[in-house]
Each structure stands twice: as C-alpha cells, then as structure tokens.
Amino acid sequence: MAANAQRSQTLRGYSGKRVYHLDYHGIFGTHDADMQVEATYTAPNRKDFKIISQSGSKLLINHVLLKLLSSEQDAQEEQNRKQLEISPRNYDFSLVGTEHSADRDFYVLTVRPKGPSKYLYRGKMWVDARDFAVARMQGEPARNPSLWVSHTEVEYRWAKIGEFWLPVHNESETQVRMGGKAVLTIDYTDYQVTGANRAGPRSPGETSTLPNPGAVSADPH
Fold first, then answer.
1. Which of 24, 54, 68, 93 has the greatest number of beta carbons closer than 10 A?
2. Under a CB-based contact definition with an 8 Å cutoff, are residues 151 and 140 in contact?
3. Helix (H) or strand (E) holding 192
4. DSSP class per residue in 41-76
C-alpha cells in the first residue's frame, strides 16, 4: 500500500493504446468484435477514451465493449476507487510462497474479498519483490457480474514501463448461463507518461515504511 501510494502521488498522467477483442461461441452462434481505443489518464481520477476503430458484431460492441469503457470511467469516482483498493479494507491476504523468473522475484498471495463487491475478486496475486507492485492477478469476481453469467475467470498482467507499473494484458473467460462461452482480451501498448512529479518514485530502500524484500518470508502454514 505504501509503494502504491508513492507511485500514485508521482504519476500525474499517461496515454496509451488498447486493442479489445471479444469472441462468443454459443447457442446464438459465433460472433466476434474488435475495438481500438486511445486512452488518457489525468491524476487523480480522470480517464478519457477515443475510439479509433471498431469492427464485428454491433451487439457485442454496444452491449459489452462500450459498456466496459463506461464502467472504467465510473470506477474512477472516489467511492468506487475505495472499493477497488488492494488493501486490508477490502481483502484478507495470505502469503503462500515465492516465484522466480529470469529477471524478477515475486511474492505469491491468496486474496479473499471481505464483501461481494463487483469491483473485488478472489484468487491469487503476484507482487514484485523489488518494487512491491502487483504484477499479476488471477481469479474470479467476488460477485457474479450478471444474471446471464454462470462463471468468469480473469487474469490481469502489469509490466514496468519506465518507472511505473501499468497494465499490459487482461483476459477473461465467461461461461454464459444459457450456454456458450465468451473470451475477452485487452492489450495495452504505446504508453507515454505525460505527467510526473520531478522527485520520481522512491525505491523501497529509500523509505522506512517499506520492508526489505529479504525480510519477508512465506507463511509456513
């Protein structure tokens, strides 16, 4: 939470491109839709979207993809942002282990929501051991997003872009209650940081509020 607060205070704006792709296979046939979007973020809570192109099923575009953009803007409202926080206010956490890649180390935690909010999920998260940033989340929503949906699996990935951790890929697979499956992917590219405080984000070693990664170990139970 301390590391997230530091990054939030430093990052004042960015822009980037997104590609949305949605496939549906089920009792209503096979349909797909694509949309390319330019997105801009202005601190503390403003997101703007410009649709560059769209193709495929108008039904999927109007009732799924465009609603995703609207929902993301709604999530920026202060009350909703509090519900989105990855914090003890919203989740119970358990540190279950560590994972290693060629260039980074991660703490693996299980997360259990404290309430059935549509903004929360249950599953696992991978936290970068150097920057204390969430690099990956995997699981299912705490509350079913629609009566038409029987089950949804989600995975979000972030990457370090310059000095900041930003989303790079989202994927969700939804089982439709009346039969069928929908798979949505979002790819994020071409980031440009448009505003940042001059001091830049501090590393964990520069503040006493963040522990040294070597001092953290998994719960043996």
1. 24
2. yes
3. strand 180-196
4. EETTTEEEEEEEEEEE-HHHIIIIIHHHHHHHHHTT
The tokens for 124 are 């696992």
Q: For residue range 127-176, what is the model confidence (pLDDT) as tens digits?
A: 999 999 999 999 998 877 666 667 889 999 999 999 999 999 999 998 88
- Let me know the angle formed at the C-alpha of 193 by 61 and 79, rounded to the nearest 5 degrees: 60
Written as six digits, the tokens of 2 are 């301390």
How much is the pTM?
A: 0.86
Q: What is the mean pLDDT of the chain?
A: 86
pLDDT tens for each residue of 65-116: 999 999 898 888 766 778 888 899 999 999 999 999 888 999 999 999 998 8
Place of tokens 């949505």: 184
